[in-house]
Structures are given as C-alpha cells and as structure tokens.
Design goal:
Blueprint (H helix, E strand, L loop, with lengths): L9 H10 L7 H10 L2 H8 L15 H41 L12 E5 L5 E5 H13 L6 H9 L8 H4 L5 H9 L4 H10 L4 H19 L35 H15 L5 H11 L25 H4 L1
Antiparallel strand pairs: 1-2
Helix pairs in contact: 1-2, 3-4, 4-9, 4-10, 4-11, 4-12, 8-10
C-alpha cells in the first residue's frame, strides 16, 4: 500500500479536527500551537479523547488536548530532575566502591569485566566486550580537541598511568554507558555492594538502571511519557523490598506509573527530603482532567483505580 497523504496547511489541520468533532473556539490560538508544536505531535494526545477512530468524544475541546500535552511535558521535567539525582548517586557508588576495593584505576583492569557472546536474530554471533568499549570511550575523551578541564589537567601533569583515575573517567559516561558498565562487571559481589546502598538485589538494581536509561532518553528527546508502553520493562521484585514499596498485587511494569514508583523508591535513599511527590501531585492537580488511567495505575476487580496515594511508598 502506497502512502499518498499530502501535507495540510495549519488551517486545513484545524478544519480536519473540527470535522472530526473537536470544539475549537479560537482558531488563531490553535494555529499558533500547530506552528510551534506541530499537528502530528499533538495528534498523539488527541487519541485519548477518541473512543472511535477519527471521532472526538462529544464535548472535547482543543484545550483538552493541549492541556494533556502540557501535562506530559511538565511530567517529563519532574521525572528528569529526579533521574539526574539518582544517576549521580549511582555513578558515585560505582566509583567509590570499586576504587576502594581495586584502586584508583580499576577501570583499566580487564579481569574485572566479563566478555559475553550471543546470537542476534540474524543468526550472527556478537561479542560484547565492556572493557574494550569502556577503554575506547576513555581514549576518545582524552584525544578530544576540547577535553574536559580535569582530563586536560591530568594529561599535562601525569604520564603514568596513561588513563586518568576512575573518579574522572566514569564522570564522562552517559547514563547508558554507566548502565552497560555495571551490567558488564564480572563479580556479582561488586554489583551487590553498589545495589545494597539502594536497598535492592543486584539483579533488580541492574534491571531498574536499564529502565532509568530508557526513560531518561525518552524525556531528553521530548517523547510522550504519560501513557508510554515501556519497551525496556523494569523487573517486579519477587520478594519484599527493604524500603517502603507497593502493596497492590496488580502492578503493570510496562507503564509510566510503575516507573514513577521506581523513582520514588530510589529517592528514599538518594534524597529523603525530595519534593518529587509534591511536584508530581502538583502537576496532576494542575491538570485535573488528565486521563491518568492510561499511566497504568492498578485497578480493583471492578476496574476502579486504586487509591495509590495511600500506598506505603507514597504516604511518606
């Protein structure tokens, strides 16, 4: 089937939504937002107000769609702020624990990392060598035309070891590279030492760190977050966690609500005085008509949303 849709002018886009039943009292306002957000991006939020395809629910206004978009944007900002705090804490624990166990340049010891081989869907065998990947990242930053100031300082003052110490080079990693570094550690005791700080089993911690990377990239690229089906799904703990968690059994770990719970769990350690909960509730209160059921909040046997704000995790 050939794609033959032609681009519509802003005025034609407004006409189309009005034809589908959307109430647009102010066409100039709608056109302003189409010029600055785009019709296609807003269309993803319009779907929440359509029980039937290409037909808006009776009484739906342009502001309903717009406010849902703004809610999602403000939600992403709250999430990004929390992820920053968690990422820095994880980075700190990895550097501190491995440096005290193996020395300042533990990252240059290949015996600390595992090499794995796996078969791709194409049938090709692939080797995953975290140590080599890590060394290439360090080398790239050291050879950069404009390296970080602390890298410049080390290279000018010292000639051995050739690489800067771990507390410098690990700071250069993206959260995705940090996640791969942690998963590539050969010794589970090293993983446990880091995960214990966050009151998590190391396999759960590894899974949650992977999801943190995925969610962070969603937010950084301004992707829809509020009703996202997570491709990278965090594991559900099979045993009780050491800190306050959820008591409801019907947890949907592929939706954004579970990830918000994951953040809240981390913050109990990383920043106990965090205003994450207040900021989250504030965004929800600001846009009370947001269909939060699409976030994956558990329901009872009758399909009614549970009072999740009274869960042990959220009452603190």
């Amino acid at each position: 089937m050939n794609y033959n849709k032609k681009p519509l002018t802003h005025s034609q886009q407004i006409d189309l939504w009005e034809k589908r039943g959307l109430i647009i009292p102010d066409r100039n306002k709608a056109e302003f937002y189409f010029r600055n957000i785009s019709y296609y991006r807003l269309s993803a939020y319009a779907l929440a107000f359509q029980k039937s395809k290409d037909r808006f629910n009776r009484g739906t206004t342009f502001d309903d769609v717009l406010h849902l978009y703004i809610f999602d944007r403000e939600l992403r900002l709250v999430v990004m702020d929390a992820i920053e705090r968690i990422e820095i804490a994880i980075r700190t624990q990895i550097i501190y624990n491995l440096a005290h166990k193996y020395g300042s340049h533990w990252q240059d010891n290949p015996s600390l990392f595992k090499v794995s081989r796996y078969r791709e869907k194409s049938g090709a065998m692939v080797t995953k060598d975290v140590y080599t990947d890590f060394q290439n990242i360090i080398s790239k930053h050291c050879r950069s035309k404009y390296p970080e100031i602390f890298i410049q300082h080390y290279l000018k003052k010292y000639n051995s070891p050739s690489n800067p110490p771990s507390w410098m080079v690990v700071e250069l990693l993206t959260i995705g590279e940090l996640s791969r570094l942690y998963s590539g550690l050969k010794n589970n005791d090293d993983k446990r030492k880091v995960a214990d700080y966050f009151s998590l089993h190391h396999t759960i911690f590894e899974s949650w760190l992977h999801t943190l990377t995925y969610a962070r990239n969603l937010c950084a690229h301004h992707c829809r977050f509020w009703n996202r089906d997570f491709v990278i799904q965090p594991e559900i703990p099979k045993k009780s966690l050491k800190l306050a968690w959820l008591s409801h059994p019907n947890i949907i770990n592929r939706r954004s609500f579970y990830f918000l719970c994951l953040i809240k769990y981390f913050l109990q350690t990383v920043n106990p005085g965090s205003h994450f909960k207040q900021r989250l509730f504030g965004v929800m209160d600001k846009y009370p008509n947001t269909p939060i059921q699409f976030m994956g909040i558990p329901t009872d046997n009758y399909g009614k949303l549970i009072d999740w704000q009274q869960e042990p995790l959220w009452v603190q």
